[in-house]
From TrEMBL:
InterPro entries registered for this protein in UniProt: Pept_C14_caspase (IPR011600)
Organism whose genome encodes this protein: Streptomyces pactum
Pfam families with a match to the protein in the record: Peptidase_C14
Compositionally biased spans, kind Low complexity: 290-341, 356-365, 373-397, 421-432
Domain Peptidase C14 caspase: 14-213
Region annotation Disordered: where it falls in the sequence: 222-241, 248-438
Compositionally biased region (Pro residues): 398-420
Entry protein name: Caspase family protein
């Protein structure tokens, strides 16, 4: 693995923007914007592994469109190496223009949207006009995948777009228990863990792989086009380092993982088995194995007179010896047919299947009486259909029927509605996030 590209602290800038409330349009209030901004700022410029200086990170909370764009242009002019742009808020997909807008608090969806919100394509264009060598754009908003798809394969050198959802998806507005959004929380968690030692830290390429594993099934699993993040890059964008922290073995790096389990005991190697237990396939210890039982010895209460024993005795019965007969004074054995619950069969076999399995019971005799045959009713003959008379069509076009009074005239249809006029948006469910396109 090649080493990552470490930004120049003196020539790098970061602009973090969060908009949790849009006054018009019926958007939900995003309660995780402040927590996202604070967590990401600390991850970028706090600690010895940070790649940004604290005075080079600018945070904007609920800025209007003018202030927002001015700060973006200023950062693009002051940056000579890496510029990181982060946005958390509401994304809006314009249905007619098929473009993505990042909404400011005073965005006017039915009026001057371009003058009250920031069109996505304006952001990379403004950054490209400055002195920036590399740029990273992180979008935590609805429809953010549109920015990644538009930027993929654009050929911009050193640019990288990281989006939270695909181009057709919204995202829930509820925060996690720690107050952050799932996407930004996964980024901060990955930065705290660190990257591979060979790369010198956490690169954007490795970060995207971790986000894809964590958020693949969020918030609903088994969706056709998936949820997971989207990315678009150009040049050496994937090799940019976000932190110099290197994960250790305890955090899941090389050489980490559970060690080998405990091996077999010394007695188990070579077929010896576990001490104190019988080997697999052997019977538990019993009476004598091999040889001849002494005359007059009793096994399980029955006398044995010189019966040879060639197997292992289990529960006092030898497997190779015939079953011991009844002793004097024992009650007579019960009839197996009576025990099975029925009279004996033709060969002494009980109906339940007990007895000699090699003997097949006789089949019962069949009823000699003839079986009644049910007559089949005959189908009535089909009746002949009368011939169809086809009348010749008159030459020339058919006359148009008269139009009743009060109905629209087909020769003068009504004018269809203008598709450029805004449509009324329907009601939304609580927690749905951004409403659909206008």
């Amino acid at each position: 693995m090649a080493g990552g590209r470490l930004p120049d602290r003196a020539g790098s800038r970061a602009l973090l923007v969060g908009v949790g409330t849009v006054r018009e349009g019926g958007f939900d209030v995003l309660e995780y914007t402040d927590a996202n901004l604070d967590a990401l700022r600390d991850a970028l410029c706090t600690g010895p592994d940070a790649v940004f200086a604290a005075d080079r990170v600018r945070v904007l909370r609920s800025p209007e469109r003018g202030e927002w764009y001015d700060e973006l242009r200023r950062a693009a002019q002051e940056t000579t190496d890496l510029l990181l742009f982060y946005f958390v808020g509401h994304g809006y997909r314009h249905a007619l223009e098929n473009v993505l807008y990042l909404l400011a608090p005073g965005a006017d969806l039915d009026g001057d949207l371009g003058g009250t919100a920031l069109r996505w394509s304006l952001i990379p264009d403004t950054v490209g006009k400055g002195k920036v060598r590399r740029a990273v754009f992180i979008l935590d908003c609805c429809y953010s995948g549109m920015a990644a798809d538009q930027h993929a394969g654009s050929g911009e050198r050193g640019h990288y777009v990281l989006a939270s959802v695909p181009r057709t998806r919204t995202q829930p507005s509820e925060p996690l228990p720690n107050g952050r959004s799932p996407f930004t929380d996964a980024i901060v968690t990955a930065m705290a863990r660190g990257g591979a030692a060979e790369a010198g830290g956490l690169t954007l390429h490795e970060l995207f792989g971790r986000l894809d594993e964590v958020m693949r099934d969020w918030p609903a699993p088994h969706v056709t086009d998936g949820w997971g993040p989207r990315n678009g890059s150009g040049g050496d964008g994937p090799d940019i380092l976000l932190t110099r922290r290197v994960r250790t073995g305890a955090d899941g790096g090389a050489g980490a993982g559970p060690g080998p389990g405990p091996g077999p005991s010394a007695g188990a190697v070579g077929g010896g088995g576990v001490p104190g237990e019988a080997p697999a396939g052997a019977a538990p210890p019993g009476p004598a194995v091999g040889g001849t039982a002494p005359t007059g010895a009793a096994v399980d209460g029955h006398p044995v007179t010189g019966t040879p024993v060639t197997g292992t005795a289990v529960a006092g019965i030898t497997p190779d010896a015939p079953a011991p007969g009844p002793a004097a004074g024992d009650p007579p054995a019960a009839d197996p047919a009576v025990t099975a619950g029925g009279p004996p069969g033709p060969t002494g076999t009980a109906p339940g299947g007990s007895g000699d399995p090699s003997t097949t019971p006789a089949r019962p005799a069949q009823d000699p009486r003839p079986r009644a045959v049910r007559p089949v009713s005959a189908r009535p003959p089909a009746t002949a259909r009368p011939p169809v008379t086809v009348r010749p069509r008159a030459a020339g076009p058919l006359p148009a029927p008269p139009v009743p009074a009060g109905l629209p005239n087909p020769s003068n249809p009504p004018i269809p509605p203008n598709p450029l006029l805004p449509r009324a948006r329907g009601p939304r469910r609580p927690g749905q996030g951004c409403p659909g396109p206008a």
